[in-house]
Amino acid sequence: MSGMLELLSDSPVVPVLTIEDLESAVPLARALVAGGLNVLEITLRTPCAKAAINRICAQVPEGVVGAGTVTRAEDFSLLKDLGARFAISPGATPALYEAAARSDLPFLPGIASASELMQGLERGYDCFKFFPANAIGGVAALRALYGPFPNARFCPTGGITEETLSDYLSLPNVIAAGGSWFAPAADVAAGRWERITERARRVAGNRNRG
Ligand code: 3PG
Questions:
Q1: Predicted confidence (pLDDT) per residue in 92-110, tens digit
Q2: Protein residue closest via CA to atom 5 of ligand 1
Q3: Residue 107 main-chain phi, psi, to 5 deg
Q4: What ranges do the domains of the chain cover?
Q5: Which of 36, 128, 156, 165 could form a disulfide with 204 if both were Cys (CB 3.0 to 4.6 A apart)?
Q6: Can you identify the CATH homologous superfamily of domain 2-201?
Q7: Does residue 156 line the site of ligand 1, with CB under 6 A?
Q8: Could you give phi then psi for residue 17, rounded to 5 degrees?
Q9: What is the rounded average pLDDT of the residues 166-181?
Q10: b (16+ CB within 10 A) / e for 11-43
Q11: Is pLDDT above 60 for 209?
């Protein structure tokens, strides 16, 4: 249904990028792709976010770039025009689900509870963002959801670190995990792209499944 399962299966670690300075967008994306992380989530939280998506799509063709923090139904049609390949939301509303159904952009709806998960499953989704992962029970919560919902798959984000990543990825219902730790603001501001590539390279190999 969502197309996200296939996309995330190929690249189970997703950098979540909040781009403050448009000039950093392309070098940042190139640094991550060079480290082996191709699927990039650009959050719609800054004034230049949409321009950043457009620029990365045009200039970093190896990247698979999508939008995060998609909270408005009208964003779906615009994102497609910008070249975005997917949309991710921190939570989901009927209006977002309806906009996603009208669009062919793969959509990863956010859920934080069994009830929200059931609403997404009812709409035919099988893959969800689990947000904010660490704050809502992390690995233990995902393990508990596996009992009643063994077919649901998750991409947890929110409070995940390089140290906790493998705990998440070892769960049978976790298809991918995301976070912002790859690109600390200080490294981005100083243009320390090599450090970002190194960090990406370390986790790109972290695909061990339990
Ligand atoms: C988000 O959308 O904010 C992501 O979940 C990133 O969370 P993090 O900054 O805690 O990694």
A1: 999 999 999 999 999 999 9
A2: 158
A3: -130, 130
A4: 2-201
A5: 36
A6: Aldolase class I (3.20.20.70)
A7: no
A8: -115, 125
A9: 96
A10: bbbbbbbbbeeeebbbebbbbbbbbebbbbbbb
A11: no
- Over 60: is that where the pLDDT of 177 sits? yes
Does position 206 have pLDDT exceeding 70, yes or no?
Answer: no
pLDDT at position 207 over 80 = no
Both tokens of residue 9?
A: 């299966």
- CA–chain centroid gap for 134, Å, is 15
Query: How far is Cα of residue 98 from the mean position of the Cα atoms in its chain?
Result: 20
Provide mean pLDDT across the span 39-51. 97
Residue 129 falls in the annotated catalytic set? yes
Pairwise CA distance, residues 20 & 6, whole Å: 30
Residue indicated by tokens 């998440």: 168
Residue ranges in the chain assigned as alpha helix (H): 4-10, 22-34, 49-59, 75-82, 94-102, 114-122, 138-146, 165-169, 185-190, 193-204
Can you give the pTM of this predicted structure?
0.94
Q: Output 105-114 pairs: Cβ under 8 A, ≥24 positions apart.
A: 105/76, 105/79, 105/80, 106/2, 106/3, 106/4, 106/7, 106/66, 107/2, 107/4, 107/70, 108/2, 108/4, 108/8, 108/155, 109/2, 112/136, 114/145, 114/148, 114/149
Determine the pLDDT at residue 172: 97
Mean pLDDT for the chain overall: 94
Query: CB of 41 within 8 A of CB of 61?
Result: no
Distance 118 CA to ligand 1 centre (A): 23
Count Cα atoms within 13 angstroms, Cβ side, for 184: 10
Q: Whose alpha carbon is nearest atom 7 of ligand 1?
A: 158
